Amino acid sequence: MSVIRENVESTSSNQKPIAGSLHSSRPLCTVSSAALHSLTTKRRMRTRQGATAATLALMLPVVLAVAAYAINVVYIELARTELQITIDVATRAAGRVLAVTQDKTQAAAAAEKLMLENPFANEKMNLSGSDLVFGVSTRYSETRRYDFRPGPNPNAVQIQANGKIKVPMLFPTMGVPIDFRPIKTSICTQAEMDISLVVDRSGSMAFSATEISGNYNPAAAPVGWKYGDPVPPNARWLDAVNAVQAFLLVIEQSSQEEHVSLTTYNSTAKTDVTLTSDYLPIETAMDGYSAKFDSGATNIGDGILFGASALANKKTARSWATRVMIVLTDGIHNTGTDPLYAAQTAAAENILIYTVTFSDEADNARMEQVAAAGSGKHYHASTGLQLVEAFEDIAHRLPTLITY
């Protein structure tokens, strides 16, 4: 009995005796708890791995479908963006040609050319008659958008992409190929402008474009002529008068209503006419100087500052209008505010500056810097005819806007 008791006690704590062990003195065969736990864990891991694989197999088509859908959505937006860029480029080209030529046929041809040169999503769009519409865009306050309406005497061009081009999706949906038809609209409008003319009336403007000015009378001046008398024939000032008249004639023919001011300068500057849609006072003021032309130095900088003030006049300026300044000089700045500083001041007020130098005495380099500071362009004219052409070219180059 003592042997049996010892065997029982040796197995009672962690092991269970094998049947018949009470009658045998052989060692007992046992399995530890750690081994059982390890075996159980492995079985569970194999079960989970199998379940995960099955789940992934079931979910993979769903994941691929969602990914394809997401890629298609991104592709649609990319195609729509490319289409908007394409018709913006074409509309701006048509608007620019219309502003310069007032010819609808040429404007439509320019738009067609740009549309074909700028495909979207590898697709080219040919313009039909209904895709391109000429009309009038108007705006009456800074807080309102431009309102476009088809009509005669156009100042705007509209191109409509009405979904006639089918673009295939990158991936089929539920195994079925799908197309989409992007729709976009673009309108290019000749900007409503407030324009400041800044014109040199210094003493040298009494000389002809082919003369060198100095402390003597112009060659064309009559005997006994002096400053304060009517300006001599062939004077640069009279060429300037003709150039301004040509400029006003071009913009008067526009369907937009441009407002124009006149600032003149010699030793000092003066705003002779505030912004107005009636251009007759400008011509009258210039004729007044022709009848009584005084001498004086060349204060280009103050002319620019006075011209900028005319564009900032709250009583006459339109807050929504594009602001443009055209500065004419025949000589070299020799008194008053530095022109480049004045141009930088005007540019800070969002004023676009064109400069025109007249005669070979002018300081072209400085006026090129002035135009660059105002994000504009510099012109040089050696003759009265070239001066008129420069002003006409500026009138045709005045800004257009994408107004949608």
Set down the secondary structure blueprint.
Layout: H1 2-12, H2 33-101, H3 104-117, E1 132-138, E2 147-150, E3 156-162, E4 167-168, E5 179-180, E6 183-190, E7 193-200, H4 236-252, E8 259-265, E9 269-276, H5 280-291, H6 300-312, E10 322-329, H7 339-347, E11 351-358, H8 364-373, E12 378-381, H9 384-397, E13 400-402
Parallel strand pairs: 7-8, 7-10, 10-11, 11-12
Antiparallel strand pairs: 1-2, 1-3, 3-6, 4-5, 6-13, 8-9
Walkthrough of the structure:
The protein is α/β, with parallel strands linked by helices. It folds into two domains: 58-190, no CATH class; 193-398, Rossmann fold, CATH 3.40.50. Helices cover 42% and strands 19% of the residues. It contains nine helices and 13 strands. The protein has helices at residues 2-12, 33-101, 104-117, 236-252, 280-291, 300-312, 339-347, 364-373, 384-397, and strands at residues 132-138, 147-150, 156-162, 167-168, 179-180, 183-190, 193-200, 259-265, 269-276, 322-329, 351-358, 378-381, 400-402. The strands form three sheets. It has a six-stranded mixed β-sheet with strand order 9-8-7-10-11-12, with helices on both faces. Mean pLDDT is 86; it is low at 1-25.
